[in-house]
Sequence to fold (71 residues):
Amino acid sequence: MSVADAIVRMAQRPRREVFVGNAGRMLQLQHYLAPGLAEKQSARMVDKLHLYQDKRAPDATSLRRCRREPP
Fold:
């Protein structure tokens, strides 16, 4: 089922949640089998992937470290 199909289906027959794709179904299964573990793992993933990313601009020292020395 595509995202568009899911939107149309939800408009026709509203439900609280819908999962699209295999990743969504696997997360649903994981939450059903081990809800506590699923919650901890989800929180850790959100923190790691979305909240605490260090995206600083490169400075002069980092550029020197990346520079190759001529042979």
Remarks:
- Residues 3-53 form one domain.
- Helices lie at 3-12, 21-33, 35-51, 60-66.
- The chain is about 65% helix and 0% strand.
